[in-house]
């Protein structure tokens, strides 16, 4: 407790008491205790983060899964490590994480903190912490009412990065918006050398189609999804940076997992989809930069558990249910591509909310390629959420069979219909608050053992 002020002690104690109360009474609550601490001592994060080697994970899609992957790899390597595994990625939630792990009478040494950070909140964290590494996963249109277009998101992230010039940046090289940032930081890139398909023409609804320097349209040697890929500009010569860490071969893609060659290592990723290969590649790059052994990386990635609505698998009265968080066109299309890998029939639920954390503007669902589901063998189409009728209209226009629609506004009724499904394999695609609230319902019924 050397050199700690009375204000900091009171701040930490008040927050720890609040953490205890929220965990025992509310069965959750990861933001409010941090607000309590910050109300007493605005600089408390600087104190409680001392001694940690910090990795900050930000970007539009994949933050929670990538953070979990990095955390598990570092833990597998035998190191002391903490994380905000519930996805509480705003400033107060991150303060809560550090305070929850703070001990008054022991000094933190040789420990790591792998922290997910909301894009707009990065600047509040780097004001008090100098991270070892900051990674940016990607930049897609998301929560249009909050962020607007992708350049707004990029500028918010750069506000945070410019506060910490000694931090290494590990960036997605396939993301054109992250190239040539003109920053003094050491920067390394990861990306795909392997082709997912033969597409070289960017989709009309892709997010960053034009060169950020000369505004000419990008050309591609290959596209992974949306605007990510091996891009180059014929106008000014801007192109993808040299990759230090790369997926060099796709060995297997299935609805449940993927096997790829990253640099010279064969790695199985226990979660499916190209977007999860990106997450694993990012985790690989960061942990290699941290000096983690290859054996720890390989073992951890092949045993990575799905977390908190990110391809989380449940058993509901004998039905195999997988919850997939979807929050913007890019991520939704990747989830649909994963469904398309199924060779057998299945049922699917679509949950759409329009709360603040989802984005109050749901017009983005018209940029999702639901039409690719038209020829799949889907037995039942469950639809729920605050904007279930908007979703039903979108799916009807996409060509899904209306007689298969089962619309339920109440979770109790939705769960009953899922239990009665003619197919025991069911995917639930849900926006953020729909996922949170439905998990709470399932927790109350005993189908989920751990709420947070």
Provide a descriptive summary of the structure in words.
Forms a heterodimer with GatD. Its EC number is 6.3.5.13. Pathway: Cell wall biogenesis; peptidoglycan biosynthesis. It comes from Clostridium sartagoforme. Keywords: ATP-binding, Cell shape, Cell wall biogenesis/degradation, Ligase, Metal-binding, Nucleotide-binding, Peptidoglycan synthesis, Zinc. This protein is α/β, with parallel strands linked by helices and 452 residues long. The protein folds into two domains: 6-302, Mur-like, catalytic domain (UDP-N-acetylmuramoyl-L-alanine:D-glutamate ligase, 3-Layer(aba) Sandwich); 310-444, Protein-Tyrosine Phosphatase, Chain A (Alpha-Beta Complex), CATH 3.90.190.20. Helices cover 33% and strands 22% of the residues. It has 14 helices and 17 strands. It has helices at 6-25, 32-40, 44-48, 63-76, 91-100, 122-126, 144-147, 150-161, 274-289, 294-302, 329-339, 388-397, 411-419, 432-444; strands spanning 52-58, 80-83, 111-116, 133-136, 168-172, 187-192, 218-225, 228-233, 245-253, 258-262, 265-269, 310-316, 319-325, 346-351, 378-384, 405-407, 425-430. A nine-stranded mixed sheet has the order 2-3-1-4-5-6-9-10-11, with helices on both faces. Strands 12-13-17-14-15-16 form a six-stranded mixed sheet, with helices on both faces. Strands 7-8 form a two-stranded antiparallel ribbon. Strand 12 (310-316) and strand 13 form a beta hairpin. Helix 4 (63-76) packs across helix 9. It is globular, with a radius of gyration of 22 Å.
């Amino acid at each position: 407790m050397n050199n700690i002020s009375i204000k900091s002690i009171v701040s930490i104690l008040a927050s720890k008491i609040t953490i205890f109360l929220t965990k025992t009474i509310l069965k959750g609550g990861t933001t409010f205790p941090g607000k309590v601490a910050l109300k007493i001592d605005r600089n408390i994060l600087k104190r409680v983060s001392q001694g940690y080697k910090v990795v900050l994970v930000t970007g539009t899609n994949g933050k929670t899964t990538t953070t979990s992957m990095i955390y598990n790899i570092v833990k597998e390597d035998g190191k002391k490590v903490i994380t905000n595994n519930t996805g509480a990625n705003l400033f107060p939630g991150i303060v809560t994480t550090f305070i929850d792990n703070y001990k008054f009478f022991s000094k933190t040494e040789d420990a790591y903190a792998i922290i997910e950070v909301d894009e707009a909140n990065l600047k509040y964290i780097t004001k008090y912490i100098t991270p070892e590494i900051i990674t940016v996963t990607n930049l897609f249109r998301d929560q249009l009412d909050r962020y607007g277009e992708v350049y707004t998101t990029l500028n918010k992230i750069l506000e945070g990065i410019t506060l910490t010039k000694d931090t290494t940046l590990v960036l997605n090289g396939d993301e054109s918006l992250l190239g040539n940032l003109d920053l003094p930081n050491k920067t390394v890139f990861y990306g795909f050398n392997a082709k997912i398909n033969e597409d070289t023409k960017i989709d009309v609804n892709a997010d960053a189609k034009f060169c950020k320097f000369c505004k000419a349209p990008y050309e591609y040697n290959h596209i992974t999804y949306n605007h990510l890929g091996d891009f180059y500009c014929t106008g000014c010569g801007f192109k993808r940076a040299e990759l230090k860490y790369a997926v060099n071969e796709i060995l297997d893609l299935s609805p449940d997992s993927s096997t790829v060659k990253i640099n010279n290592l064969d790695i199985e990723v226990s979660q499916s989809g190209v977007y999860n290969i990106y997450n694993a590649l990012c985790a690989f790059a960061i942990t290699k930069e941290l000096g983690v052994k290859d054996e720890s990386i390989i073992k951890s990635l092949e045993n990575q558990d799905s977390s908190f609505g990110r391809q989380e698998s449940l058993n509901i009265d004998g039905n195999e249910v997988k919850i997939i968080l979807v929050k913007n066109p890019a991520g939704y299309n990747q989830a649909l591509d994963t469904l398309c890998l199924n060779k057998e029939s299945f049922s699917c639920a679509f949950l759409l909310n329009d709360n603040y954390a989802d984005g109050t503007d749901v017009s983005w669902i018209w940029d999702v390629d639901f039409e690719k589901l038209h020829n799949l063998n889907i037995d039942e189409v469950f639809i729920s959420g605050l904007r279930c009728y908007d979703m039903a209209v979108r799916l009807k226009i996409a060509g899904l069979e209306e007689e298969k629609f089962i619309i339920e506004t109440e979770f109790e009724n939705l769960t009953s219909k899922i239990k009665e499904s003619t197919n025991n394999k069911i995917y639930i695609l849900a926006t953020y608050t729909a996922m949170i609230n439905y998990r709470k319902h399932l927790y109350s019924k005993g189908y989920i053992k751990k709420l947070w």
